[in-house]
Specification:
This protein is mainly alpha-helical. The protein has helices at about 15-25, 45, 50-60, 65-70.
């Protein structure tokens, strides 16, 4: 949508914040980069992923078992 500003019936529901981002891209203030689907860590929160991807994303997010960090009680 940032490269093709024409409005289609399927994009009428897009909020103003997305149009704001499009204007930032047009003005050269930000640039958008494609991210490989195998590196999109947020997929763990939005999709059903394989065990291998789940383990990889957990590692990339820095999630660990509480027990492995030790107790907070002294």
């Amino acid at each position: 949508m940032t490269k093709n500003p024409s409005f289609h019936s399927r994009t009428k529901h897009i909020d103003l914040c997305y149009h704001f981002i499009r204007s930032l891209v047009t003005n050269g203030m930000i640039s958008l980069k494609a991210c490989d689907t195998n590196k999109q860590v947020v997929d763990i929160l939005t999709k059903s992923v394989s065990q291998a991807k789940h383990d990889y994303f957990i590692l990339r997010m820095g999630v660990c078992r509480f027990e492995s960090k030790g107790s907070i009680e002294k």
